[in-house]
Amino acid sequence: MSDVDAREAVARSHREEWARLVASLTRRFGDLDIAEEAVAEAFATALERWPAHGIPPNPGGWLTTTANRKAIDRIRRESKLDGKVKEAQRVFDDDPPEPLGAIDDDRLRLLFTCCHPALAMEARVALTLRMVGGLTVPEIARAFLVQETAMGQRVTRAKAKIKAAHVPYRVPAAEDLPARVSGVLAVLFLVFNEGYLSTGADTDPVRHDLTGEAIRLGRLLRALLPQDGEVAGLLALMLLTEARGAARVSASGELVTLGEQDRGTWDAALVAEGHRLVRERLVAGVAPGRYQLLAAINAVHTSARDVRDTDWSQVVALYDQLVRLDPSPIVALNRAVAVAELDGPEVALAAVDRLEDRLAGYHAYHATRADLLRRTGRSQASRAAYGRAIELAGNTAEVAYLSRRRDQLG
Question: Which Pfam families does the entry mention (predicted)?
Fold first, then answer.
């Protein structure tokens, strides 16, 4: 067994097992800090032992047992009351745990725990990315454009607040769900986005473990709240985006933009499911929310057999509705991309330039501006904008794409 094989096995297990392990230990020990530390120690032990002793037949089971023992060891080291140690021993009981909510899923309970309204929204997102998504603190810091130390403190404070406030580890009661779900959706959307286009320079450019987990949790939320339009909208948005996953990165590791993708490789089943959800919300006759509008925009894109067949007037009209709900600079930037197709790059460039003060540190702003400058014949300014986008981008596939586009300008 080579070190490389063992490390790849540990990395694969981390992607597949992290959220389940943290959720399982949180349920059993009632402490996020103990759960996270024990799981992290279990993976560290795997890195030490698997190269020497081989990958176990059931890596997930090995990690579960190891993490449970690490948690019990910590409780004993801290000289907790005997009762607490006895409670910890439940990890070895054969009896299944009692269901704790409408859907008996540890990771869904963990999601609601991390998204409790006692926490500020930025803390909820950071904690969920760490506990449910398994992202490292540096990865989360890059996603938030903040320093690693500040992000580490944010995650630590969030865990401490959950413990001090005795936040229950459960899916809220039915009457409390609607008030809690908007925060959960916001976090799920960010988890999905981190998988869709990873911010880490040393990670896979597309992380299907994160997008897959976000979709799985989205389906569970849909089962909990079948009449909630925004739950359906977010699920549709994720499905329609994930459907294009196989076409997003070339064999050479370069990002492939929507207009250049081989649409024959899109997942037809996911596209059909996403379209059904979008149509379902249209028939409901209720004013759409943010996620429903984003899903509708993606439905227009995935309905076109070729990028030239895209109904750009409909896309712009949907963005006009979205801007009224969410007047953020990123929405305005995305709207400008559609305007360029409808009214030309000069009109779009004027709209993009108005966003400079708010998006100067955002790589996609400079990438969009670079493309529009290229299309208007301003090669030198376009090269400079591509250069700034490359400096700010962390995704390796995106950097490769932007570098090629810049180099084509000569």
Answer: DUF6596, Sigma70_r2, Sigma70_r4_2
